[in-house]
Write a structure and sequence with these properties.
Radius of gyration: 18 Å
Shape: globular
Helix content: under 10%
Largest sheet: 8 strands, mixed
Distance between the termini: 33 Å
Order of helices and strands: EHEEEEEEEEE
Length: 150
């Protein structure tokens, strides 16, 4: 398996040191190959065989570029994951992801053929896909980064 197709485990606090917020509901992911307009078929994870669910989340890191702050997170679970509660008086749901993996890939959607007489300028970039097996409310301050196996 090439490195671009490999899921790499990563602790939540390593990729989201400033925290993270769920900003949408968790929804089942559509299997576009098996679904029809009349018949929705939920996608299954190719590695685990578990149902796939998705939600949008927001990285709280102030240094992350605006275009990369909101991202899709995919959940692998037989039953729909339940997000933690919102912070009272706000729409924000602070969250930590369990069993988080990152899969790097080449995003070449912005790579277009050159016009006649022009040099090719590829705007492909390295992107990544995030998957988790669950989520929960963040640990109290001082607990992040510590292993449960201590």
């Amino acid at each position: 398996m090439s490195a671009s197709n490999q899921r790499l485990p990563i602790p939540h606090e390593q990729i989201f040191p400033h925290g993270c917020y769920l900003v949408t509901d968790v929804e089942p992911m559509r299997d576009f190959d098996k679904s029809t307009r009349e018949n929705f078929v939920q996608a299954l994870d190719k590695v685990t065989g578990l149902r796939l669910w998705s939600a949008m989340a927001h990285d709280a890191d102030p240094d992350v570029r605006k275009t990369e702050k909101t991202f899709e997170i995919k959940f692998m679970a037989e039953v729909q994951p339940v997000p933690p509660p919102t912070v009272p008086g706000t729409p924000f749901r602070p969250v930590e992801f369990d069993g988080l993996t990152v899969t790097p890939y080449i995003d070449d959607k912005a790579c277009k053929p050159a016009r006649p007489g022009e040099q090719h300028r590829c705007r492909a970039r390295i992107a990544y896909s995030l998957r988790a097996i669950g989520m929960r409310a963040p640990r109290p301050a001082g607990k992040a980064g510590h292993s449960d196996a201590a």
